[in-house]
Design goal:
Shape: globular
Largest sheet: 7 strands, parallel
Order of helices and strands: HHEHEEHHEEHEEEEHE
Helix content: 25-40%
Radius of gyration: 19 Å
Distance between the termini: 55 Å
Length: 272
């Protein structure tokens, strides 16, 4: 009986969301499962991306592949060699950087990313709550439900509440499943920031940033976590989120990845 009411509540929430945002998500509904005849390579921004020869990735596009990316990838010099088909921005800091007190380097990366997305008119996925507020006037935009709910099992319909942690990498996998790609290959979703922790005499937590474009070995204070237990619990939740996608045809291109729920066996020529 409890499950019945819980499922009913989720159903009602999903329907209310669709009614409220029907005009906004109409295009998102139309593109569901439109990529069934194609594969996709998802390029994230973890350090493992450095193992990939991006010129080879661009050549693979000619073999019925799309390229999907997210975060600050476009702000890097190496991105000039890649033609991106779809891009994801889900964190408000990456959409409205002027509204947040960001480190100068991070702000510069975000601002440059936004400029390139606008210049290239890249197809873009944005949360519905950004509608009418952002400055991507000339981009084709697909809006998605950016609200998690731990009571739902949905992980593939981006017009509904989702049942995994609110992490851009997981949302990217969900969007790729929404689009219907035959097979998803990914690199740069490392989730390894938890294994380089330091704590000083004030019990302040420091970590090395693990983006492929970061300064290697530089420890910076983590302002987003209250304790080691909180940080590790959140990291564990991300791994659990990936595990929810383990029954889909998803290939991890990083042979050394800590994410152990996807096959790493493939025939693609992508490495340096």
């Amino acid at each position: 009986m409890i499950n019945f009411y819980s499922n009913l509540k989720i159903l009602l929430k999903d329907e209310l969301f669709k009614v409220k945002n029907r005009k906004i998500i109409n295009q998102t509904i139309k593109i569901r499962n439109t990529k069934k005849d194609k594969n996709v390579i998802l390029l994230a921004t973890g350090n493992s991306l450095s193992k990939i020869d991006l010129k080879k990735i661009n050549n693979i596009k000619n073999k019925n592949f799309d390229i999907f990316s997210l975060g600050g990838f476009l702000a890097s010099d190496v991105s000039q060699n890649i033609d991106i088909d779809y891009y994801l921005l889900s964190d408000e800091r990456t959409i409205f950087p002027d509204q947040f007190d960001l480190e100068e380097n991070l702000r510069n990366i975000i601002v440059k990313t936004i400029e390139i997305i606008k210049k290239k008119k890249t197809k873009l996925f944005l949360p519905t709550e950004t509608w009418g507020k952002h400055d991507f006037k000339d981009n084709e935009i697909f809006y998605f439900n950016n609200n998690p709910d731990n009571k739902t099992k949905n992980i593939t319909d981006i017009t509904k509440y989702f049942g995994y942690g609110s992490i851009s990498g997981l949302k990217a996998l969900s969007i790729c499943k929404h689009l219907g790609y035959k097979k998803i290959y990914f690199i740069g979703l490392d989730n390894n920031h938890w294994n380089n922790i330091k704590v000083n005499h004030k019990n302040e937590i420091f970590q090395v940033h693990r983006h492929f474009y970061d300064d290697n070995g530089v420890y910076k204070k983590n302002y987003n976590t209250k304790s080691i237990s909180n940080l590790l619990r959140r990291s564990s939740g991300v791994f659990e989120g990936f595990e929810k996608f383990k029954n889909f045809d998803i290939i991890n291109l990083d042979p050394d990845s800590l994410i152990d729920c996807f096959s790493k066996t493939h025939q693609l020529d992508v490495y340096k």
